[in-house]
Design brief:
mainly alpha; 7 helices; globular
Length: 114
């Protein structure tokens, strides 16, 4: 591991890189939201209907957090009714390998729930 990274992890003024990553994509909903948007499901209403168990308030909160963190961008279309679409930013796309690894691990282990 890079010496500078180790120094940052050990310093009191910085957080662990894993903690930072989890703050960006951790929790119950963010990985699911990112996965769906990466597959082209990028409208609020469709996301809300697709993600079983998420409330509109929670979806809004998670989308806003990821937008504030630079993972997602939002485009508002001046239509009636208004249409909002979400897109993954360059920073967000760098998370794809993590999400894909989670998908593969889940597919491999969902059958063997020992």
């Amino acid at each position: 591991m890079n010496k500078n990274i180790l120094e940052k992890i050990e310093s009191n003024n910085s957080t662990c890189p894993v903690s930072y990553c989890l703050s960006m994509i951790g929790g119950k909903w963010k990985p699911i939201i990112l996965y769906l948007i990466s597959k082209g499901i990028n409208r609020f209403g469709v996301l809300n209907r697709t993600i079983e168990g998420i409330s509109k308030q929670m979806l809004t909160k998670q989308l806003r957090e990821m937008e504030n963190d630079g993972i997602l961008s939002r485009k508002i279309f001046a239509e009636i009714p208004p249409r909002v679409e979400y897109y993954v930013t360059k920073k967000g796309k760098s998370i794809y390998p993590i999400i894909e690894a989670m998908r593969i691990w889940g597919e491999t282990n969902i059958i063997n729930r020992d």
